[in-house]
């Protein structure tokens, strides 16, 4: 683990860890760094199974992987899928925009390469990621952010999403609202501070 982080010029355990997932590309990125300043990309893990399609999770049983801004909220050593890291779905945006009373839950990053709404990686890789997250938390980072996107939301990606959402104005509005979160980190390599409007379910990147 120390060698992996040394190759990214980051001391292990890091003071900050940040995860970004991209559903279409089936990638989970791990970024890390010191107490302040830009983060460095440490590793990209392949997501080895998907369920649902591009678009947010809005109801229990829809098979969708969530999209949005989350944090890790559980460390599960007794998972049915080897090890798992809980994602705090539903967040305030999901509660505002999803099916009230039927939002579902129990979204994890886990092993075993099977999924209905989660982000699976191999057992060997979840062991590595679990250790990173645990050691970073012990080192002082209480909330490890996880941003989940439909795809890389640059100009090309947004054009593709606009085509996919051509008959769904609500979906296109959601993706347009999520895009500045992606752009903020692409610009600075610093996880943006994001506020959620609990009434309208929108994200706002704070200055």
How would you characterize this protein structure?
This protein has helices at 2-7, 92-97, 123-138, 155-164, 169-188, and strands at 16-22, 27-33, 40-46, 68-79, 82-87, 107-110, 119-120, 145-149, 194-197, 202-205. Strand 1 and strand 2 (27-33) form a beta hairpin. The model has no long low-confidence stretch (mean pLDDT 96). The longest helix has 20 residues, at 169-188. It is 28% helix and 28% strand. It has a single domain (2-205), classed as L,D-transpeptidase catalytic domain-like, CATH 2.40.440. With 207 residues, it is of the alpha+beta class. Strands 3-2-1-8-4-5-6-7 form an eight-stranded mixed beta sheet, sandwiched between helices. It is globular, with a radius of gyration of 16 Å. Helix 4 packs antiparallel against helix 5.
What is the topological layout?
Elements: H1 2-7, E1 16-22, E2 27-33, E3 40-46, E4 68-79, E5 82-87, H2 92-97, E6 107-110, E7 119-120, H3 123-138, E8 145-149, H4 155-164, H5 169-188, E9 194-197, E10 202-205
Parallel strand pairs: 1-8, 6-7
Antiparallel strand pairs: 1-2, 2-3, 4-5, 4-8, 5-6, 9-10
